[in-house]
Design brief:
Blueprint (H helix, E strand, L loop, with lengths): L19 E4 H7 L5 H9 L3 E3 L2 E2 L6 E3 L4 E3 L2 E3 L6 E6 L29 E2 L8 E7 L2 H8 L7 E7 L5 H9 L1 E3 L2 E3 L3 E6 L2 E9 L6 H8 L4 E9 L12 E3 L2 H10 L11
Parallel strand pairs: 9-15
Antiparallel strand pairs: 1-4, 2-3, 2-5, 5-6, 7-9, 7-16, 8-9, 10-14, 10-15, 11-12, 13-14
Helix pairs in contact: 1-2
C-alpha cells in the first residue's frame, strides 16, 4: 500500500478522498455567513451541523464532501467579491431602502450583489470611496476600531474655519455618543480656510458632520478620498471596479488575516 506523503512539518497529507476545507469556524466565515468570531458563537450555541450532527468545536476539520448547515440552511464557501465604488451623492449605503430611494446596490450588476454589504457607511450626501464585499470576516475587521484603519476626507464648509477650530478636531470634541477626534486635520490650502483635510479611524454615524457642527460650522460638501490605501483614482463617480489581488492581500495584512486562495481565484 502506498504511503501518504509527509509535509515539511512531519504531518501526513489527508488521503485524496478526504481533502480538507479547513476549520469549521473559518468554513462558515468563508461561506459569507458572518465573521469568524461570530461563527464561534454560532458553533457554541449548537446552530452549526456537519453531516446532520451538531458540532460544538470550532476547530473541527471540515472535509470537501461534508455537508454544513447553519441554523438549518446549507452553506458552502464561495468566491468573495471585493468592489471599490466611487459613491455618488443622493445614494443610500444599504442593500435596500424602504422608501425606494437610490442605493449603492443599484449601481452594481445583479449577478454580483448576492452577499455584498458596505464596509462602513457613507451618509446619503457624502461621496467617494466605499468598499463593498461579501467577505464577512474582512469587512467586520476593517470596521473594528482595534485595527485603526485610516479614512481620509475632504470637507468644504460655508464659512472659514479658524486654525484654533481645526486644532480642536485633533484634541477631541465631545459629542452625544462620546469623545470624537481626528487623527489629523488641516487646511488643504492656506488661501481657502473653508476646505479641510481630515483623517480618522473612528467610524461613528455622521461623525465628521457632527464634529464640524460642534465647531459652529456647516458642511456643504463631504468626500471620502481614501480608505486604508484605496482611492477612487481612475474610477468615475457612480462607477466601480474590482480590487486587485495585491490590494486585497494588503487589507488582510493590516487586519491580521491570512490570505486565502479561495477569495480571489
Amino acid at each position: 500500500m502506498r504511503k501518504r506523503r509527509r509535509t515539511s512539518r512531519g504531518r501526513r497529507d489527508p488521503p485524496p478522498e478526504r481533502l480538507l476545507e479547513g476549520r469549521l469556524n473559518r468554513y462558515v466565515a468563508r461561506a459569507g455567513v458572518c465573521s469568524r468570531r461570530a461563527a464561534d458563537g454560532l458553533i457554541d450555541r449548537g446552530l452549526v451541523k456537519v453531516n446532520g450532527k451538531v458540532v460544538r468545536t470550532y476547530w473541527h476539520q471540515v472535509c470537501r464532501e461534508d455537508t454544513v448547515e447553519v441554523n438549518g440552511r446549507q452553506v458552502s464557501p464561495r468566491r468573495f467579491e471585493y468592489l471599490l465604488l466611487n459613491k455618488p451623492k443622493d445614494t443610500i449605503s444599504t442593500a435596500r431602502d424602504e422608501h425606494a430611494r437610490n442605493t449603492v446596490m443599484d449601481l452594481i450588476p445583479e449577478p454580483l450583489r448576492s452577499g455584498l454589504f458596505s464596509v462602513g457607511r457613507l451618509d446619503r450626501d457624502t461621496i467617494g470611496v466605499l468598499l463593498l464585499t461579501s467577505d464577512g470576516e474582512l469587512g467586520h475587521r476593517l470596521m473594528h476600531p482595534r485595527y485603526c484603519v485610516p479614512k481620509r476626507y475632504l470637507v468644504q464648509t460655508v464659512e472659514p474655519v479658524s486654525v484654533a477650530a481645526v486644532r480642536r478636531l485633533q484634541s477631541g470634541i465631545t459629542l452625544e455618543d462620546g469623545l470624537a477626534l481626528a487623527d489629523q486635520a488641516a487646511h488643504v490650502r492656506p488661501e481657502d480656510p473653508r476646505l479641510l483635510g481630515i483623517e480618522l479611524h473612528q467610524g461613528r454615524n455622521r461623525q465628521i458632520r457632527r464634529m464640524i457642527a460642534a465647531l459652529g460650522h456647516q458642511v456643504t460638501r463631504l468626500e471620502r478620498v481614501g480608505y486604508a490605501h484605496l482611492t477612487t483614482k481612475g474610477v468615475r463617480r457612480g462607477r466601480w471596479r474590482r480590487l486587485q489581488p495585491q490590494e486585497i492581500a494588503r487589507l488582510k495584512r493590516i487586519t491580521g488575516m491570512r490570505s486565502s486562495s479561495l477569495a480571489h481565484k
